[in-house]
UniProtKB/TrEMBL annotation:
Residues 142-371 form the Sigma-54 factor interaction domain. Residues 5-119 form the Response regulatory domain. PROSITE patterns: RESPONSE_REGULATORY, SIGMA54_INTERACT_1, SIGMA54_INTERACT_2, SIGMA54_INTERACT_3, SIGMA54_INTERACT_4. This is DNA-binding transcriptional regulator NtrC. The gene is ntrC.
Length: 469
């Protein structure tokens, strides 16, 4: 039985021959390709454990091949071979998601050791994925074929070997915690704890104790020593949801932990050292909070090393049908009832809705339909009345001005239980105007700033704030 399956891509037949012989002698199955286009065709029928590809080849080069693989399978390890003169390109490939680069001329033993390491990594990833699929209640699946979600998947892939801090932003209900889970699951810390804490769900006077723990007698009711979330997450990942709601005094303490990796329990006198990766998330515009003095600028820059934007459901409408059916399947399994399917007409209606509550609202709707729809196929008449009314309002107001449409969105958002809708709407309002202005001016930022009534520096800052740069 072979130890792994590796594809080698190089227009140089001697390189292909040497690597194939070396890998085969090590009981590793190997297939070779002379060009990248053949690899993409072969990937439609099967996927290897590892791909080793040269950078410079006729036709599609290795970097373009890497980008295409990242779109379909960001977890597939790709080793880039490069001559010393192509070192900059190799570093760029590494930053774009390559597993490693192999400089030419290479030592055969080093090349084999690298291939074995990549195979081990690939097997670990597959085992982790299998475990996640077996226990989907613990780590639910992220579904998304829309371009905006593909960007999210690529980001997860690029960060798979990193422990760097990540800031996730997106509206409520978009699945920020799922993305945080995925970042942890595909990181070097995956075998260690993933601990989540929602800042908005904890009374402010308890946040300090929740994060840092307390000593016995630290305050009334502290009858024993208690570990905080930082200690619980040691070696793993601490996910701080709704970080924008963290009180300023706690922000100061968090900043110190990020700076030197140690803290004191409430009422404690001994420093506790931890190794924790921080993933933070928010639906708010942190730049605005910094400007208003409600969020520390130095903490913002500490957290905002890498930012991942999760699109709203209305920005990925091609995913709605697949997501809805996925949630119908889960609900049927949980409730031990027959799985219901969506009629074409019902899908059409669901796709046209604005979904202010995003994926969470769609999931709740799917659970409701599993219980309440009378037949095995869900028809438009089975849909909740408020959804049908929203669709009717949308149809009857196609000619309405934008103020009326905005009012309709706000009413719908409040009816679905959303809060802080102004902080949701303002960034989206600016994002849409920026996108239209840039399209109108063919991407010329100076002209786009002019039509928006901004200076060039303001436009550049806004593009960065809204993750559009």
């Amino acid at each position: 039985m072979s130890k792994g399956y590796v594809w080698v891509v190089d227009d140089d037949s001697s390189i292909r021959w040497v690597l194939e012989k070396t890998l085969s002698n090590a009981n590793i199955k190997c297939e070779t390709f002379a060009d990248a286009e053949s690899v993409l065709l072969a990937l439609e029928r099967e996927v290897p454990d590892v791909i080793i590809s040269d950078i410079r080849m006729p036709g599609m080069d290795g970097l373009d091949l890497l980008k295409e693989i990242q779109k379909t399978d960001p977890m597939l390890p790709v080793i880039i071979m490069t001559a010393h003169s192509d070192l900059d390109a190799a570093v760029n490939a590494y930053q774009e998601g390559a597993f490693e680069y192999l400089p030419k001329p290479f030592d055969i033993d080093e090349a084999l050791a690298l291939a074995v390491r990549a195979i081990t990594h690939s097997h670990d990833q597959k085992q982790s994925s299998h475990s996640a699929n077996t226990h989907h209640a613990d780590t639910p699946e992220i579904i998304g074929e829309a371009p905006a979600m593909q960007e999210v998947f690529r980001a997860i892939g690029r960060l798979s070997r990193s422990s760097i801090s990540v800031l996730i932003n997106g509206e409520s209900g978009t699945g920020k915690e799922l993305v945080a889970h995925a970042l942890h699951k595909h990181s070097p810390r995956s075998k260690n704890p993933f601990i989540a804490l929602n800042m908005a769900a904890i009374p402010k006077d308890l946040i300090e104790s929740e994060l840092f723990g307390h000593e016995k007698g630290a305050f009334t009711g502290a009858n024993s020593v208690r570990q905080g979330r930082f200690e619980q997450a040691n070696g793993g990942t601490l996910f701080l949801d709704e970080i924008g709601d963290m009180p300023l005094e706690i922000q100061t303490r968090l900043l110190r932990v990020l700076a030197d990796g140690q803290f004191y329990r409430v009422g404690g006198h001994s420093a506790i050292k931890v190794d924790v990766r921080i993933i933070a998330a928010t639906h708010q515009n942190l730049e605005s909070l910094v400007k208003d003095g409600d969020f520390r600028e130095d903490l913002f820059h500490r957290l905002n090393v890498i930012r991942v934007h999760i699109p709203a459901l209305r920005e990925r409408k091609q995913d709605i049908a697949k997501l809805a059916q996925h949630f119908l399947n889960l609900a049927a399994e949980e409730l031990a009832v027959e799985v219901k399917t969506l009629s074409k007409e019902a899908v059409e209606i669901l796709t046209r809705l604005s979904w202010p509550g995003n994926v969470r609202q769609l999931e709740n709707t799917s659970r409701w339909l599993t219980v309440m729809a009378s037949g095995s196929e869900i028809l438009p008449s089975d849909l909740p009345q408020e959804l049908v009314e929203e669709r009717s309002l949308a149809s009857s107001n196609e000619g309405a001005d934008w103020q009326e449409l905005l009012e309709m969105w706000a009413r719908s958002a409040l009816a679905s239980g959303e809060t802080e809708i102004l902080s949701h709407a303002l960034p989206e309002f600016e994002r849409i105007l920026l996108k239209v202005a840039l399209n109108h001016t063919n991407g010329h930022k100076q002209d786009a700033a002019k039509v928006l009534g901004w200076g060039r520096n303001t436009l550049t800052r806004k593009l960065k704030e809204l993750s559009m740069s």
